[in-house]
Amino acid sequence: MARDRNDGYDRRTWSVVSVLSAAVGRLRRNPSVLVPFAVAGMVLSVVDALRRRDPIPTLEYGGLDEATVYVEFPGYPTGVNRTTLPLESLVGLEAPYLAWGFGLYALSVVAVSLAGVITLTRLLDGETRLGPLPSYLGFVVGIDLAYRLLESIDALQQMGLFGLVPLAALFAVVVWLFPVPGLVAAGASPWTAIRHAGIWTRGVRWSVLGVILVLGIGTWLLTSVPVIGAFLGSALVAPVHAVAIVSLFEHRRDGWAGTPIEP
Question: What is the pTM of this model?
Answer without folding.
Answer: 0.87
